[in-house]
Amino acid sequence: MTEQYTSDEMMTITAARALNNNSTCFVGIGLPSAAANLARLTHAPDITLIYESGTIETKPQVLPLSIGDGELCESALTTVSVPEMFRYWLQGGHIDVGFLGTAQVDRYGNINTTVIAASHKDSGPDGAHSYANPKVRLPGGGGAPEISTNAKEVIITVRHSKRTFVKDVDFITTLGFGRDGQGRKGKSTLGKGPTLVISDLCILKPEDETNELIVVSLHPGVTKQQVIDATGWDIRFADTLQTTDEPTSSEIEVLRELKRVTEAAHSQTETA
Amino acid sequence: MTLFTTLSKAIEDGVKDGDTVALEGFTHLIPFAAGHEIIRQGRRNLTLVRMTPDLIYDQLVGAGCVSKLVFSWGGNPGVGSLHRVRDAIEHGYPAPLEIEEHSHAAMANAYEAGASGLPMAVFRGYVGSDLQHVNPNIKTVTCPFTGEALAAVPSIKPDVGIVHAQKADRAGNVLIEGILGVQKEVVLSSRYSIVTVEEIVDDLEAGPNSCVLPAWTINAIATVPFGAKPSYTHGYYPRDNSYYKKWDSISREREPFLKWLDEEVFQAGE
After folding, report:
1. Domain range list for chain A
2. Report field, pTM of the whole predicted structure over 0.90
3. Under CATH, which number does the domain B7-102+157-266 receive?
4. Which residues in chain A touch residue B240, judged by CB atoms under 8 angstroms apart?
5. Is the ipTM of this complex over 0.90?
6. Test the A interface: residue of B26, B81, B86, B104 with most A CBs within 10 Å
7. Active site residues of A
8. Rounded to whole angstroms, how far apart are CA atoms B230 and B234?
9. What are its E.C. numbers (chain A) (predicted)?
10. Distance of residue B146 Cα from the nearest chain A Cα, in angstroms
């Protein structure tokens, strides 16, 4: 029998399982970082984790609070400059998977980490209206706009709610498949884009041709109605809808230990 | 001129009102002490350039030194918002703040182009991003050989570049180790460069491929132990993650921030 787990743990563990042992993964901070390191500590010990601070093949013992914590550098095979990271390693085509979090994602996998518009009428097709009329100012793009287009594929992980899963993002910070789902068509120098979106309720994939995100697997105990209620568009479900495998007790144990040592490390005050 | 100087003299000589200044350091080696000295000297109307504004620009913006911010990711990493920057953007407090927003790839390329003496950077970026609709400094150029449309941004060439580093030798050569960020690029692209170091040593003990900035690329060096705190210096002291978390409550409202500014910056002195 599997022990009790939270929906957040379910999400992180499912996201970790999406990564394989042979891939080179460019890791965003937060949820992706937790999942990527969980993968490394469980089924994918040889996975290559790369952070935009320039650290290559990093193996942190505690999760970094920022993208450039010393732990990432100390446990890395090598550390390169930030221009080299973005030019040679990302743009040069050495990244299999870009692993991203977001504030908003829309039905075509577009990501918004720039501004939430003041109201729906303030959002427009090119994002400029939202940008000029923000209700919430978010941190901005960081590495994501080029990770999403230069990595061979993208995995997104984000908690499910009507505020995060919106029909159209207020601002496309980072390209999924564009406003009409065809934003990558004919652009041979770009990666495949989002291939998987993992939330705390379900797993979504872009549908063939339309590239609209549809639910392919519900996490154990989650109903279709829950997903419908938490999604800002008329969400569709795959004909062969799966149920996501439950977390194993060892996955739960490793994740909780990782969170515990991380929490302990981050609450320490470093004195001069 | 004397290469070795005090921090206050370095800032007094190097940073003028209205300058474009880049205090860099990607999470690591952020020159906080130098930023605080700029606040104490009351500089105004600065254009500040930094990939991740971090707490250091939140402090400079909150102190009223800044009229424009050029950046690519403006949060408190792992914690939340930069409240002083938001207050300036949303309410014009303590002064209106113009922003020019990029992606990391764009800024890293723009620094490299600046160090390379080029007028612009070319890279495969901003594809499908609305950032190009809100930032007129993002343009497209066509590759003359393949016809591919590529992104172009102006190179970054600050009036003053400021970084922190581990150590300098007695001749003023500087060694940087750990996460390198754009430290080398900002020193080489700036008209005037200031480096604060943890210590001066007889021998840098640098390997053949180490990141070393020769003395003749630097205008002023000041020894400032712990000059990057609460950021960190690899090999000297770790990042004070708890301070980054605490900053959220210090900076959220104006009053506690102003109290912090008075106690930790103005009264602290160099």
Report:
1. 7-265
2. yes
3. 3.40.1080.10
4. 269-270
5. yes
6. B104
7. 52
8. 13
9. 2.8.3.6
10. 12
